[in-house]
């Protein structure tokens, strides 16, 4: 199936979304909130693994 790309900026997308029926608008809002929460949690979890990138910690990369 061919991919279609649309050249729109955030303001144009927002204007289109605001034209949706309330039910559809609220569903999109919920999905965006869920995605935002996931992104934030992923960013927070990345900080816990930074110590593995320090020198001397490469023992975790050794193959058994």
What topology does this entry show?
Layout: H1 10-17, H2 22-48
Could you walk me through the main structural features you see in this protein, from its secondary elements to its overall organization?
- It is a single chain.
- The chain is mostly helical.
- The chain has a domain at 21-61.
- 55% of the residues lie in helices and 0% in strands.
- It has two helices and no strands.
- The N and C termini lie far apart (43 Å).
- The model has no long low-confidence stretch (mean pLDDT 85).
What's a concise summary of this model?
The protein has two helices and no strands. By secondary structure, it is an all-alpha fold. The chain has a domain at 21-61.
Total count of helical runs of at least 4 residues: 2
Can you give the mean pLDDT?
85
The number of distinct β-strands equals 0
Any idea what the radius of gyration is? Answer: 20 Å
Residues in helix, %: 40-55%
Low-confidence stretches: none
Q: Name the beta content range.
A: under 5%
Indicate the structural class.
mainly alpha
Oligomeric state of the chains in view: single chain
Task: Please summarize the sheet with the most strands.
Answer: none
- The CA-CA distance between the termini, in Å, is 43 Å
Order of helices and strands: HH
Shape: elongated
């Amino acid at each position: 199936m061919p991919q279609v790309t649309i050249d729109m900026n955030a303001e144009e997308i927002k204007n289109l979304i605001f034209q949706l029926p309330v039910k559809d608008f609220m569903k999109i809002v919920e999905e965006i909130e869920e995605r935002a929460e996931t992104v934030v949690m992923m960013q927070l979890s990345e900080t816990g693994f930074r110590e593995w990138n320090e020198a001397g910690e490469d023992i975790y990369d050794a193959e058994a």
